[in-house]
Amino acid sequence: MTFGCAFLAMFAIVGMGAGAQAELRAADKPALQLVEKSVVDDVRSYTIHSAIMQRDYLISVAVPDEPLETAKRYPAFILTDGNWALAPAQIAYGGAREAMPGPMFVVAIGAPPGTTAEERGIRRIFEFSPPGWDRQDPFGKVVTEGCAKLGVSAARCTGGAPAFSQFITRELLPALSAAFPIDEHRLSLGGISAGGFFGLWMAFQPDSPFRNYVISSPAMQYGNGEILRLEEAYARTHQDFPVGIYMGSGSLEIDDPFLEGVGQIVSGQARLGGMLRSRKYPSLRLFGEIHHGLGHVDASAASYARGMRLLLAK
């Protein structure tokens, strides 16, 4: 079509009334249809029932999009809060891939489809929190109030971290290793907020299978200082701490009346990092950062990216 013909055709359309234009557009363009696709090309999703937790989980496995050698097994990065944490972790992995020694599986643990936001919140409070928390501290009272409003019993409000860790080590990891070439000796754990607290809690457990922990904005006041007590107890009986730990949080969290004022996210991260450095563990790889201009949620993508590069790179 020449320029003149194209101009005339455009003028004709513009000169029509709105109704005539709509009819012409509808006639020229076929109706669009959404076609459901249950699995993203490189993500495979499964449901698994945990006999230990007595509940179902959605497990999403991002498979490396490069050839894998038949006889080899590969590292895996396990994520809590899998309903929304997988995407930023995949982006971080894609950016850091050129600096890493080889392919890696990214696995997200989430609540099954149909779980409401409130239900997910109650699940994660229980699963990520330590036993023995009387919840008489300011943050504990907030948690207790939230559980009561949603009709959750005190016994199921907090204290599920030991059982959740057993679900991961005794049920999930064996199932993953049977289905995928995952090396159970090269595992990393990622967590955000309450999930970040669980990651740090897991680091001090004697049966933890993880070598690296990428933690974003850890809710350090879970358990009323439980992580600092675990660190102190560990230091009394150990001369080394052979793990990698990355902790990052956002600068916007520093002045937040709840996140910092009650949850002690930034100050708790700094205090734990300082205590660990004071032990002078020869094999500990420890990194702590504040992401300028970021908050509680968007800092997670930066933490995953930086944690992968600092702990998992060549």
TrEMBL record:
Residues 1-20 form the signal peptide. SUPFAM superfamilies: alpha/beta-Hydrolases (SSF53474). Gene3D superfamilies: alpha/beta hydrolase (3.40.50.1820). Keywords: Hydrolase, Signal. This is Alpha/beta hydrolase. It comes from Sphingomonas colocasiae. Belongs to the esterase D family. The keyword Acetylation does not apply. PANTHER family: SIDEROPHORE TRIACETYLFUSARININE C ESTERASE (PTHR40841), SIDEROPHORE-DEGRADING ESTERASE (EUROFUNG) (PTHR40841:SF2). Pfam families: Esterase (PF00756).
